[in-house]
Automatic annotation (TrEMBL):
<feature type="region of interest" description="Disordered">
    <location>
        <begin position="216"/>
        <end position="236"/>
    </location>
</feature>
<protein>
    <recommendedName>
        <fullName>Lipoprotein</fullName>
    </recommendedName>
</protein>
<keyword id="KW-0732">Signal</keyword>
<feature type="signal peptide">
    <location>
        <begin position="1"/>
        <end position="19"/>
    </location>
</feature>
<feature type="compositionally biased region" description="Low complexity">
    <location>
        <begin position="226"/>
        <end position="236"/>
    </location>
</feature>
Length: 236
């Protein structure tokens, strides 16, 4: 194999099966949210499917998402009630007409991560630089063997592991499971659904949360009584 053949082979391998990078989703920076319901409702809910794709790049993770039957969704929730709301306890998410439950962030990240150990196979890669090629047989004699495999394999393993770690960290940081939303607060998050297709999403208060009375302010403590004044002395 000549240096030209080696370079071409290495380039083809890198383009076809190199480790994929992870581009952060950053749900708070999304500008294209689909709102469900008018503003001012007890819980304002907006969402956007195809979060991995809209973040740019993420080719490896989009492929895994489709293969494993996932939908990665960014959500925006505003609490217009007078009480704290727990996303899992007080709110119910619907996929079309049926309730659905997001997959925990760590499980979703594990299901969508790209392979790392597969790049160990690259360590076997070796090429030949220089030498003379017989035009009749195509065989090359002489030259220097170049073990490119360990370098390419190690680089891809580090890249894949780093990308997986970045995805896992963002999923966990933006997880909505048991997320507490304060009165008047707007939160952004990432949810992973085990759904092959897309359907309208809606979020509604559970019956127990809707019926709960609003918290009342504690009564103000009574003002301290003014100290009694001593009677004026008449000088006797």
């Amino acid at each position: 194999m000549t240096a030209t053949h080696l370079a071409a082979g290495t380039l083809a391998l890198a383009l076809s099966s190199c480790a994929g990078s992870y581009h952060q989703i950053r749900p708070a920076n999304f500008t294209r949210y689909q709102s469900m319901g008018p503003a001012g409702t007890p819980v304002e809910f907006s969402y956007q499917f195809s979060a991995l794709q809209m973040a740019g790049g993420n080719r490896k993770y989009i492929k895994k998402e489709r293969k494993r039957g996932y939908q990665t969704v960014v959500v925006r929730v505003k609490n217009n009630t007078a009480a704290d709301l727990n996303f899992s306890r007080d709110l119910e998410l619907f996929f079309g007409d049926r309730p659905t439950m997001p997959v925990p962030a760590i499980q979703a990240a594990n299901d969508l991560k790209q392979g790392v150990a597969i790049y160990v196979l690259y360590f076997l890669g070796i090429g030949q630089i220089g030498g003379t090629t017989d035009p009749y047989t195509g065989q090359t004699t002489g030259g220097t063997l170049f073990p490119w495999g360990p370098l390419v394999g190690a680089g891809n393993m580090i890249g894949a592991a780093s990308a997986n770690s970045n995805m896992r960290k963002e999923f966990v940081t933006n997880e909505m499971t048991n997320k507490v939303i304060r009165p008047g607060e707007t939160v952004y998050g990432i949810i992973s659904l085990r759904e092959m297709n897309v359907a309208p999403l809606r979020l509604q208060l559970r019956a127990a949360a809707a019926a709960a009375p609003a918290p009342t302010a504690a009564p103000a403590a009574p003002a301290p009584a003014a100290p009694a004044t001593a009677p004026a002395s008449d000088g006797r």
